[in-house]
Amino acid sequence: MADTQDTKTNKESKQEAKDISHLQEFFDAGVHFGHIKSAVHPKMFPYIFSTINNTHFINIEKTSEKLEEALTFLRECKEQNKKILFVGTKFPVRESVQKSAQETGMFFITTYWPGGFLTNWNTVRDGIEHFKKLEDLQKSPEWEKYTKQERALMSRDLEKLRSRWEGVRDMGGLPDAMVLVDVHGDAIAAQEARKKGIPLVAIVDTNSNPDVVDYPIPANDDALSSISLILSKIVGALK
């Protein structure tokens, strides 16, 4: 009986240590830093732990809880071979978002959100096909039949199209789910996802409305360290 109790106590101690380490990881990455009080969205109060020097601090236990819900959903998407679109258009996070999508074999938009990407898919699809055809043309012998000036103009056009469509060129249709690293900055993407009924996982800072997201992750969406940590957890769930 004593041995059983000792085993249980050891397991509980290990789990407690793991939980503390997990929360410390969030703390070290600055996940808990929110915005100033005047910028708060009232729907975020359940996720706020305290206010210090006029700044709200996010409850990282809530972050851990909501993150696990999001990861469970994303694991289910992976098991069902669903397409997930990563979106992060502010400059500091573009590389991390693209890398996360590529590591998991998913899709990404990082330069800017093309208005109507989800709600006007037929037009978007035509744009992607134009990009592919122009790219194929550049690789073919036909390319040399154009003048130097024409090739220069088409090359510039191709680079613009590549920056816009490279991350979704092979998506082949609307995504089954989306991951946003800044639901406030990419509000149009979130709005379109809701209109099309596409489940949304997103980092939600204290100045954003968590109700527009199916799986909100309360966290600092300004610090690259915070965003990178959340993305690393998502990548781990999708690998």
Structural features:
239 residues; Helix Hairpins; three-stranded antiparallel sheet; five-stranded parallel sheet; single chain; Ribosomal_uS2_CS; 14% strand; alpha/beta; elongated; Rossmann fold
Folded structure, characterized:
The chain has 239 residues and is of the alpha/beta class. It folds into 2 domains: 2-118 and 174-238, Glucose-6-phosphate isomerase like protein, domain 1 (Rossmann fold, 3-Layer(aba) Sandwich); 121-167, Helix Hairpins, CATH 1.10.287. Helix content is 50%, strand content 14%. It has 7 helices and 8 strands, in the order H-E-E-E-H-E-H-E-H-H-E-H-E-E-H. It has helices spanning 2-28, 60-79, 94-103, 121-139, 148-165, 187-196, 224-238, and strands spanning 33-36, 48-52, 55-58, 84-87, 107-109, 177-180, 200-204, 215-218. The strands form 2 sheets. The chain has a 5-stranded parallel β-sheet, sandwiched between helices. A hairpin with a 2-residue loop joins strand 2 and strand 3. Helix 3 runs parallel beside helix 7 and helix 4 (121-139) packs across helix 5 (148-165). It is elongated and about 75 Å long. The model has no long low-confidence stretch (mean pLDDT 93).
What is the fold's blueprint, element by element?
Elements (H helix, E strand, L loop, with lengths): L1 H27 L4 E4 L11 E5 L2 E4 L1 H20 L4 E4 L6 H10 L3 E3 L11 H19 L8 H18 L11 E4 L6 H10 L3 E5 L10 E4 L5 H15 L1
Parallel strand pairs: 4-5, 4-6, 6-7, 7-8
Antiparallel strand pairs: 1-3, 2-3
